[in-house]
Structures are given as C-alpha cells and as structure tokens.
Specification:
4-stranded antiparallel β-sheet, extended, Activator of basal transcription 1, about 290 residues, RNA binding, alpha+beta, ABT1/Esf2
C-alpha cells in the first residue's frame, strides 16, 4: 500500500511540474511572440462592423440589392448612350406633350426629356386670356408659341436616324391645323449631352440676374440723384421767397452756353484768281458756238 501511494504522489508531482513548465515557457507569455499573436488576432477580427458603409458610402445590404436588381441602370452609362436633337423651328400649335407624342411615333418610345424656348410675345401672356368676340363673352386661352427646342433620345442611333429622315419634311397634320405647311428643321448634335444644355441655361440665368442687379442699382442711383435735386430746388425756391419778402435782391444763375456755328454757313471767300477763272469759264460757255 505504501508503494502505491508513493507512485501516485510521484505521478502527480511530475504532472504539476510539466504544466508549470509549459506555462512558464509558453510563446504567449514571451515578449518575442507578442507581435505575432497580435497580427493573428487582427486578421481574425473583421475589418469593419456589419452594416457599416464602405468607402463609397454604400451599405453592403444596399449594394447587394442594387447588384441583384436587374432593372437598375447606371445614370452615367445611360447619359453616354443618349443623343440630343436640336429643333430650330417648333411648328405652331405644338407643345411639350404634342411634340413628345409626335417623336414617339418615329422613335418607338425612345424620347426622353424635352425643353422648348417660348417666344417673348407668348411669355407676356402666359397667365392672361383673350376675350372672344361673341354674345356670351366667353374667354379663350392663349396658346404658347415656341421658337426652338431640344429633344433627348435614349439612343444615339435613333437620334441620328430621326434627325436625318425628319429634316426638311413637312409636318403631317390636318389641313386646318396651324402647323399645316410648315417643315421640320432639326439637327443631331454630336457629343452634346443634356447636362451641357442645363449648364448653358444655368449660366445664362446667372448672367441675366447679374445684369438685372446692375440695372436696378443704376436706376436707384438715378432716382436718388433726382430726389436730391428736387429737394435742392424746393429749398432754393423757399430761400428766394424769403429774400424777396425782405426786399432783397435775388440773382438767378444762368449757365453761359456757347453755341457752335453751323458748318454749312461757313464759306471761304474766293480769291481774285478764282473769281477771274469762274468768269472766263462762264464766257466760254456762253460763246462756245
């Protein structure tokens, strides 16, 4: 029995010593292996948390939905494929809706955005109505007229083909329509995109606003100058009345304006030689026969 107990004690002591040695000389406790374990821990850890947006600011869930969506179209790619046709003349009676329907007949639904420039005369009567000469006195709306416009198509090939086939062709309308007898005048603009038109319109709008501001400031200056002159005139008139009531003298200042003589009235006096020459010429004409 004593021998068995001694063997058990020896085994327990050897196991405890081996465990202590492993803990003492483990790579994690040694400073030399600290960097290695830190790098492994970093690799094991996720680079970013779940649902955290990427560099572009798009969340992974949204990105997966966009990639899975078959109907999604890249706007830059769509703009690159599009083409713009310029219409120098808009037939009378045509507006955005009418022109869209007309272009869809030729392009099979490839029409995008449309911008038409109204004439100045129609801009003035946008909200007004013209009374019709009848007994009831009903009012007839004024229709806007347009002078030019731009039409965007989703495909360049369609825009080129339409501009080539439609240019110089008579508008297909009824005989009583206002556009009867007019012709389409259009041209495809190569390399021109809708964003270029928007930038040009924005620039022109800013220029017109700046010009309007300058005109307003000039008008204010003229009005202020006129008001000051009127006040000065009223003050001088009151001062003149006071002086005249007291029996004083008031001298009115008059500007001395030197008037130029007309050039037509100025004639150089003739010399004796010129006068004699004129007399000789006159005598020759009389006694020429």
């Amino acid at each position: 029995m004593t021998l068995r107990k001694d063997k058990r004690k020896r085994r327990r002591s050897s196991v405890s010593e081996s465990q202590h040695a492993d803990e003492k000389f483990s790579p994690q406790s040694d400073d030399r292996f600290s960097k290695v374990f830190d790098e492994d821990d970093d690799e094991a850890a996720p680079s970013r948390q779940e649902n955290e947006p990427d560099v572009a600011g798009v969340k992974p869930e949204v990105k997966e939905e966009i990639e899975d969506d078959e109907d999604f179209v890249d706007p830059e790619r769509k703009q690159h494929k599009s083409g713009v046709v310029y219409f120098s003349v808009i037939p009378p009676g045509f507006n955005v809706a009418k022109l869209t329907d007309e272009m869809n007949m030729y392009s099979k639904g490839c029409v995008g955005r449309i911008y038409l420039v109204p004439t100045r005369a129609s801009e003035k009567f946008k909200t007004r109505t013209a009374p019709e000469n009848n007994d009831r006195g009903s009012k007839k709306k004024r229709h806007l007229t347009y002078k030019e416009g731009w039409v965007e198509f989703s495909r360049k090939s369609v825009a080129k083909r339409l501009a080539k086939s439609l240019n110089g062709v008579e508008v297909q309308v009824k005989a009583k329509h206002p556009a009867s007898g007019t012709m389409w005048l259009c041209k495809y603009l190569p390399g021109f995109k809708w964003i270029h038109l928007m930038e040009q319109m924005d620039y022109e709008r800013k220029v017109s606003m700046q010009r309007m501001k300058v005109e307003i400031t000039q008008a204010k200056k003229v009005a202020e100058h006129f008001a000051t002159q009127v006040e000065k005139g009223a003050h001088l008139r009151k001062l003149e009345e006071k002086v005249l009531k007291k029996g004083g003298l008031w001298e009115k200042h008059q500007r001395d304006i030197e008037q130029r003589k007309s050039r037509a009235g100025k004639k150089k006096p003739k010399t004796d030689r010129q006068a004699a020459k004129d007399e000789d010429d006159l005598m020759k004409l009389i006694y020429a026969d």
